[in-house]
Structure formats: C-alpha cells, structure tokens
From TrEMBL:
Pfam families: Methyltransf_32 (PF13679). It comes from Ixodes ricinus (Common tick). Residues 192-243 are annotated as: Disordered. Residues 125-310 form the Methyltransferase domain. This is Putative myosin heavy chain.
C-alpha cells in the first residue's frame, strides 16, 4: 500500500540523518557538531545567508526567498527540498476535512453564548483547540449516531465542557490526576449553574456531575482562576452529562467496566474515544484501547510529548515492557529506532518559530558552553555529567559568568577551579561561533516536521493494519502557529455506521 511505502521512505530518510536529528545542543562544542555533522558545502552556505532566510527554514517562505530563486545556496536548497518531500502533506498522508466537517473552523456556526462559554477560563490557544475539536467530534457523533464520548487524559475538562455545554454530548472524562478531575467537576458545576439560572431550567434538568473518585481532593482551588470563587461563566446549550473517573489508561485498562461503572445499565453500544494533546504513551495506549474495545467505534486523537513515548528497540534489555514506538508492523519488522533526542525535536514547529520571530536564547548558548567548561575542567569526571540538568538558569542569570557560578552551585561543583576572568575568556572566544550554533539549531528545527510525520504515520499504518478498523486518516485540525501539535488521528471501525 502507498502509506506503507511512504512510511518506509520516511524511515529511510531519517535513518540517513539519524546522527543529526539525535544531536543534543548541549554537546555542540564538546562533540564538535558543526565540524562533524554539517556538510562542508552546506556549512559555507549557512554562514552566508541572512538571518531572515535562516529563520524561514522548514517553511514555504524559504523556497520563495531571493536566495533560493537566484540559486545562491544550491546544497542547502537541495537538502531542505528533501526535508520538505518527507513531510505529511508531501507524502500524501494527510486527509482534508470534508465540507461537512470543515465548518468546525468557522465560528459562525456557534451561537454567541457558546463562543463566550468556550472563551471562559481558557487561553487563546486552548479556545482555538477546543472549539475546533469539539465541532469535529460533534460531526463524527452525528455521522455515526452516538452521543457518548470518552475523553482520555481529560485534564481540567476544557474539551469535555465544550462537548457537554455546546453540543449536548454525554462525556466520561478519564484522568489519572484526581486534582484535575476535581477542577473539571467544579468548572462544569459552574457552567451548569449558569445554564440553569439563565435559561429554561427544564432544558438542563439532566445536567449533573457524578463524582466517582473517593480519593482525597484537598486541592487549593483558591489558586485556580476557575475556582468556585471566580467569575460566573456565560451559559451555553446545556443538556449533556459529565462523569469523571480517576484511572490510569494502559494496556490493562477495561473501558467496558469503566462505562458500566459510570453509566450503570444504560446499555451503551457505541462511544467516541477522543483526546486533546494526550501525552506520550497515553496516546499509543488510546490507540490500542480503540482497537481492542468493542464499544469504541470512532476515534479522534491529538497526541503530544513524543519524547515521553517508550521505544521498544532502543535496548535489548527492554523485554516484557509496554512500548509506544514503533506501533506498525512495517517499522517493527525493521526493529526501527528513532531516538529520544529526535523525538524531542519533533516538538519544535518551524512555522511558529518563524511567525514569532524567535531567536536563539542565551540559555542554549550558555548551556553548550558550560558543558565545554565542565569537560575541560573536570576531565574524565565530566563524562558523568552528560545527562545533568541545570534547569532554567539562563533567564535568571545576568551574564555567562553569573550563569556558570549558579550552575556550579546547583551541581555541587563549587570545587571546580575557574575564575571570573577565565569564564569571560571562554565567552569571548566562543561567541564567535554563535552564528554556527544558531544555524545548526535552525537546521534541526527544519527536520522536526519529518520526525513528527514518522511518529504519526507509524500510528496511522498501525490502525490500518487492524482487521477491525475500516477507515483511518491523519487530519490537520489546528493552525500550527497557534497550536503546533495540530494533527489528529481519526478512525472508524467496521461496525460503525458510516465511513469518515
């Protein structure tokens, strides 16, 4: 099949650049990344281009630049064209939302009250995500004749609240943190009270919250802007119901039992599994749950935090553990290894970086230079510091000298003999290489879309390999500048009434 070929081609491409995408910026000076990982012709071109062109790597703006049109950087252009050709759109792995569902991006389909309700207590980013995904799930529910939704990793209930209040769907929010469930219930209670007060009480008589978790909920609600002491939200349609369940979703989780416990004897046959930015292996556990649970008929899932996904073939000692990558037989047969640093890279977004005009933070330069200082001052002892974390000292430091002093203190390395003059000498010498560091990082960010494409395409192919799944797609739901993790995996089982 075409998607299998695309997945293999993408895996081959990243295998060719595996050392580069797994490079850690901390080691830029100590492991001489510029000299060892950047082709000489590309290195020369990188140092000759403008900051504006450099910041456009990984976007269409780069290919529209005069630099490219006048063929001033042929080696770099060839590489970035290859990168572009191994992204989801170029591989033909993305499905456009059809006309019926595409209206979910149009605010005009929502009433003024619903819009105000969605905006209540949410950031612009979260409001963007919840409004679009809520309408997507509503459309899927209409197509497949189900009003029941299971929201995995439901957090504080933003998506659940939208599905209930704006779309009158019944939602079971499953979250491992009891405190988050408590906040979600509090938030929904306020919305329900506002609806009951401002609209016909009979229209929302059935809107109730069932608190299933008996765990201690001594969360300090006073710190939350959405607490009971906060402002009253605007009213919406109402009519939905909300249940919460404090549980960990893994390969042993029994969704049928959870539904029975939450909704008793309602005889639920079909549910939509959804998740908005389900983190790490929760996303892969959700896919496996969708496949094995007969009641789960429709899936709409947006994952994130790929670096928290466990890889199976990283170590031969991994036998018996549960893994989230690779999932497809295509990559499992290859015993494919992506690497944690590459998965960390997948969190970057070239479009957002360009739009926000982000520049290389001092902290990145400081941390790489600190590693060199430690390496040269500690000798063999520095090898044990490869994975050491100094935290966000960069923003709190007034200079590199201050940064080094803070880091040595935090790492309990005050015995390291280095004077302020020596520290300033390091900074003066290596500031000359700051341009190289910046260019190297921008090149890595350009590869981020390829790494994310591999993870998502692996999950899509896994779904299509399952006999029970009749239809599955990757759909871009969100504006990547507003919400960089913008792709949803949508799937339907054979027993569902219609295709996507």
């Amino acid at each position: 099949p075409k998607l299998n070929r695309s997945l293999n081609a993408l895996a081959d491409f990243l295998e060719t650049h595996k050392e580069f995408v797994n490079a850690h910026m901390v080691d830029f000076f100590t492991k001489r990344h510029w000299e060892n990982l950047v082709d000489a012709a590309i290195a020369d071109e990188l140092l000759s281009i403008s900051d504006q062109v450099l910041s456009s790597f990984g976007t269409e703006e780069f290919f529209a630049s005069t630099y490219v049109k006048e063929q001033k950087a042929p080696a770099l252009t060839e590489l970035l064209e290859a990168v572009k050709n191994h992204t989801l759109p170029a591989l033909g792995a993305c499905t456009e939302i059809d006309a019926a569902i595409s209206r979910c991006t149009d605010d005009a389909v929502l009433s003024e009250a619903q819009l105000r309700l969605q905006e209540w207590c949410m950031s612009r980013k979260k409001n963007h995500e919840v409004a679009i995904m809520g309408n997507m799930i509503k459309s899927l529910g209409d197509q497949h004749d189900t009003r029941y939704v299971v929201d995995l990793g439901s957090g504080k209930g933003y998506l659940s609240g939208n599905l209930i209040s704006a779309h009158a769907m019944t939602v079971l929010g499953i979250e491992s943190a009891a405190g988050n469930n408590h906040r979600a219930e509090t938030r929904f209670s306020k919305i329900e009270r506002a609806s009951r007060t401002r609209r016909n009480p009979s229209a929302v008589r059935n809107a109730t919250v069932a608190r299933l978790s008996a765990q201690d909920r001594s969360t300090d609600e006073s710190a939350e802007s959405c607490s009971d002491e906060g402002p009253t939200p605007p009213s919406g349609n109402g009519g939905g119901r909300f249940r919460t369940l404090t549980a960990r979703v893994d390969e042993d989780f029994d969704l049928g039992e959870a539904l029975k416990k939450s909704f008793q004897d309602e005889g639920i046959d079909d549910v939509i599994l959804c998740g908005l930015h389900t983190c790490g292996d929760l996303a892969t556990s959700a896919l496996k749950l969708f496949v094995r649970c007969p009641r789960a008929k429709v899936l709409c899932l947006v994952g994130c935090c790929y670096h928290l996904t466990e890889e199976e073939f990283v170590s031969p000692q991994n036998g018996g553990k549960q893994f989230g990558f690779p999932m497809s037989q295509v990559l499992r047969k290859r015993k494919y290894v992506l690497g944690r640093n590459a998965r960390m890279l997948a969190a970057q977004c070239a479009e957002r970086n360009k739009e926000e005009k982000k520049v290389l933070p001092n902290s990145l330069f400081y941390r790489a230079l600190l590693q060199l200082v430690l390496s040269e001052k500690l000798g063999n002892e520095a090898a044990s510091l490869d994975q050491v974390k100094v935290g966000k000292l960069g923003s709190a430091s007034s200079s590199f000298t201050d940064y080094v002093c803070r880091a040595l203190n935090k790492l309990k390395l005050r015995h390291v003999g280095i004077t302020p003059d020596e520290i300033r000498a390091y900074e003066e010498e290596y500031t000359k290489q700051l341009r190289r560091l910046t260019a190297f990082q921008q090149m890595r960010i350009a590869f981020a879309a390829c790494v994310e494409a591999l993870v998502l395409l692996d999950r899509l192919v896994y779904l299509l390999e399952q006999e029970a799944v009749t239809d599955a797609h990757i759909v871009r739901l969100f504006d990547p500048v507003t919400s960089p993790r913008c792709y949803a995996l949508c799937a339907v089982k054979k027993t569902a009434r219609e295709k996507l």
